[in-house]
Specification:
mainly alpha
Length: 223
């Protein structure tokens, strides 16, 4: 398990660079009940992320047999997906970040819970580190409960840094707003720099793997 976390730790660090979630929490912190609303938004995101992780893990387990004996068509599809991902990376790198909107004072904790889940689902096509983490958990062939505990631990550690929002609001009140805005700006800049590279590297890996199989009959990425 220790060896697994040596691999998961750097993946988690990359995954935490989520300015969209942090912006949502800052948004929620400007409502009438900032602590409860921001906690609800984080809980909604975490529950959705965990549920999606379980579904992805089950799906990867189901298709592992097919991936062990891939056909030429599989690699053609992989090539197309890789090119599409590279296109997303280039587009993401060029697009500018949107500014945080003014908080909706009428947002309820229940609405924030749902928004947290929705934000998670919208961002799934870019959840490259999370898919990598699930793949690593499956590779070590843990029993089902141990694998679920590893996935749950990953999600709790993912959520931990974002608890700074409700904690700062609880301690400092409205004075926390400028600090949260600065953190949000830093995360946005960091994500703008790192995420396009992560997505682009994944696309390049898929394209290289597909071309290697189509040209030589041997893929680069072993399953």
């Amino acid at each position: 398990m220790t060896d697994l976390w040596l691999i998961l730790a750097p993946i988690l660090l990359a995954d935490v660079l989520n300015p969209v979630l942090f912006a949502l929490l800052v948004f929620a912190a400007g409502t009438a009940r900032p602590v409860l609303t921001s906690c609800a938004a984080l809980l909604g995101h975490t529950l959705a992320y965990l549920a999606v992780g379980v579904v992805l893990a089950l799906g990867l387990e189901q298709i592992s047999g097919l991936l062990a004996n891939p056909s030429t068509l599989d690699f053609v599809v992989e090539l197309i997906i890789g090119l599409f991902i590279i296109g997303i990376a280039l587009w993401t790198g060029k697009s500018s970040s949107e500014s945080t909107e003014t908080a909706d004072q009428g947002m309820s904790p229940a609405k924030a819970l749902g928004m947290g889940a929705v934000i998670n689902l919208i961002g799934l096509p870019f959840a490259v580190p999370y898919v990598g983490a699930i793949s690593q958990i499956l590779k070590v062939h843990l029993d089902p409960w141990a694998a679920f505990f590893a996935l749950l631990s990953y999600n709790l550690l993912y959520a931990l840094p974002f608890t700074v929002v409700p904690l700062l609001v609880l301690i400092m009140g409205k004075r926390s707003r400028p600090i949260l805005e600065k953190i949000n700006g830093f995360l946005t800049k960091a994500a703008d720099s790192v995420l396009p590279w992560l997505i682009g590297l994944l696309g390049l890996a898929l394209v290289a793997d597909a071309l290697a199989f189509l040209l030589t009959g041997t893929p680069l990425i072993a399953v």
